[in-house]
Amino acid sequence: MATADQGPTRPLFPRRRLRLALAVPGALVAALAVTAGLSLYAPVGQVDRILLPVILFPFLFVGLFFFALMAPRVRWVGLVFALLILGHGALIARGLG
Question: What average pLDDT does the segment 44-70 reach?
């Protein structure tokens, strides 16, 4: 059985350096913004307002990091990170204001 030549193949994850450069600091800043906001608007007790963000931070960071590495398009990663940072920044400003 002969197979037809499909031409040059695209890499599975293009723009590796851009993805890695966006994944590490982007995921870190986005996870910090989410966990900082959790302590202000989470509907839990006083002790849990500190404990919940501390427990969730590693999971948020790892999830956002792998999302940045495996998302189909790099633009989506930037958009999701920007929305998370701006959205939680607005919630933090509202909670402190």
Answer: 87
Say which residues have a Cβ less than 8 Å from residue 39's Cβ, sequence separation at least 6.
49, 50, 52, 53
> What's the whole-model pTM score?
0.77
- Residue whose C-alpha is closest to residue 52's, from 65, 37, 67: 37
Mean pLDDT of the chain: 84
SS3 letters for the chain? Answer: CCCCCCCCCCCCCCCHHHHHHHHHHHHHHHHHHHHHHHHHHCCCCCCHHHHHHHHHHHHHHHHHHHHHHHCCCHHHHHHHHHHHHHHHHHHHHHHHC
| Cα gap 88→32, rounded to integer Å | 10
